[in-house]
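seq as requested:
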Amino acid sequence: MNESGLREEICRCGASLYERGLATGSSGNISVRLDDGWLLTPTNACLGRLDPARLSKLDWSGNLVSGDPASKEAFLHRAMYEERAGAGAIVHLHSTHSAAVSCMSGLDPCDCIPPLTAYFVMKIGKLPLVPYHRPGDPKLGEAIRGLAGRHSAVLLANHGPVVSGKTLESALYATEELEETAKLFLLLHGMNPRVLTSGQIAELKRVFQLDN
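struct tokens:
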């Protein structure tokens, strides 16, 4: 897909997320990798009302090439791209159930949502928890950089998920799967749910050639 088509796709995906309540106000951001840099939703932009022509285009040094000023969380996307050569798109949301999980105490920082379903394992794999940093803190980019090479998604404490995919569609699907599994996790909290075994997870990785 050419750059014009990718701009349109970002806007379509943003509108879909907004209309379904997965992004509210001006929260969340979406990016897509290009041959000569990357596209990112602008700062203070509502994902439900994006303009393809006003999307931020950045080079690989993080400099604005064209469009409106980029999201203040551009460094999250840049760190993920630099560590994951196969990542073609990234979705970052403050979606309700994922954000709720990110506020819980006592989570396993290496894998903060257990493998409740095969689809969570297939789309997300292990989900590490990144310690809390204030929004816009550049140190958060470095915290993500230490995990992104091994994980396609991370959960920012008291904030929300950052999810990468080979394409924008795959990143979107993985983000939605994470949100649904977070909802299940909250519904089952304190109920001692049955989770997938290490053998079942290994089978999924072998059959579906998972690298997350």
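The longest helix spans residues 168-187.
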